[in-house]
Structures are given as structure tokens and as C-alpha cells.
Amino acid sequence: MAVDKVYSDATSALEGLLHEGMTIMSGGFGLCGIPAVLIDAIRQSGVKDLTVISNNAGVDDCGLGLLLHTRQIRKMISSYVGENATFARQYLAGELEIEFNPQGTLAERIRAGGAGVPAFYTPTGVGTQVAEGKEVREFDGRKYVMERGLFADLALVHAWKGDTEGNLVYRKTARNFNPIMATAAKVTVAEVEILCEPGEIEADHIHTPGVYVKRIVPLLQVHKRIEQRTVRKWQAQPA
């Protein structure tokens, strides 16, 4: 019997999945490809004491920055958090725990968790604070630090297109951390810009197979923020 994975809104899609102290993966890079609607539903739920795995922490008034503002996040496992003043303020005040990762290491920890690999060795971070408290071994004359794979209770991803069976396609840069996070959690919930019927997505175009996705939220409208807008200064053209 086919399982209906489609939910009318983010709140209903997260029903029964949220609990205090859980670990959540949140896709995206900067504000590109973030599951903004699902994040807002978590904010409205009020669930607290969260550990959130994400490349960054959004900005103060968007993305994971909303959960920091309401103090629902206890710990961040991240790579880059420089655009969020709330993050910096809470961290410096000792109110937020941070586990920093080199960006490639973070991506591999997530990929490894999704592949069932409990740990791996990497030369990145050897001799720095990143390696403190971790096992370091030598292979072929070079030192490597052991990093643990990451696996979450819940993964939230944003896709450009998805079918009702959960097969997902990400668009360009928004592909980023979403595909690997979709594989590395007990339950994956996806918000999609375009929802279609099975068979409408060419098999070779699928980035995340539907077997990984348990629930889907079709978005009625999509608002995409630009984190940093860089433009040339306007110059009058000669007549």
C-alpha cells in the first residue's frame, strides 16, 4: 500500500517528530537552499534544547537565526557563522555551545553518517584546536585526526522539485548540503517548490531518492533572501 508523504503545511509535517534535546540537520549554504518554512514551524513549536547541524546559522532575522533569537538552540555543529550577530553574542556570553568544523570535514562527517560509517581519518585540522581531544594516527608518514560521522534525529531539506513519492531535485547552488543531510537522519522532511506526480522527474535527474524522504511540504510561495548583494557602483554613461 502506498504511503501518503505529502502534508498540507510545515506544522503538520513536523507533528510527532519534535522533542526537547533532539538533534536536527538543516540544509543550505548561507541563505541558499535553506528549509526556511520548516525552520519557522520549529520556531512556532517552541521546542528547545536543540542541537543543530548546519553549515552556518543563517542571519539574525532569517533561517536558523530565528531559533537562536528564541533561544531554542543549545548547541551548533557548524563551519561558518560569521553573518549572525545573535550567534556571536550568545557564544561569547557562554549561552551557546559550538562545535566548529572545517567545511569539508563537516560535509564528510554528514556523508559518512548517512553511509553508516562511524568515523574516518582526515589530515585537516591536525595540530590545531580542531584536533584537541581527538585521536590522531599516522598513516604513511602523515598524521590524521579521527572525526566521527554525524547522524540526526531529523533532517530538514529544501528542494526545487519533488514528486509525491519523495524523489527530489535541487537547483544549482541550493544543492549544497541538502542531498547528504537527507540521508543522515532517522526522518527526513523536505519542503519543495514544485510538487509533481511520480514519473514526471527523469530517473537520471533525481538527486535524493524517495526512500530517504518520509514527509513532503509543497510550498505555496517561495521567498528567497539574498545574504550579501554585491553590485557595481552606478556610473553615468557618456552621451
From TrEMBL:
Keywords: Transferase
One example GO MF annotation: CoA-transferase activity
Matches recorded under Gene3D superfamilies: Glutaconate Coenzyme A-transferase
InterPro entries noted in UniProt: 3-oxoacid_CoA-transf_A, CoA_trans_fam_I, NagB/RpiA_transferase-like
Top-level division of the source organism's lineage: Bacteria
Coiled coil: none
PANTHER family: ACETATE COA-TRANSFERASE SUBUNIT ALPHA, KETOACID-COENZYME A TRANSFERASE
Protein name, UniProt field: CoA transferase subunit A
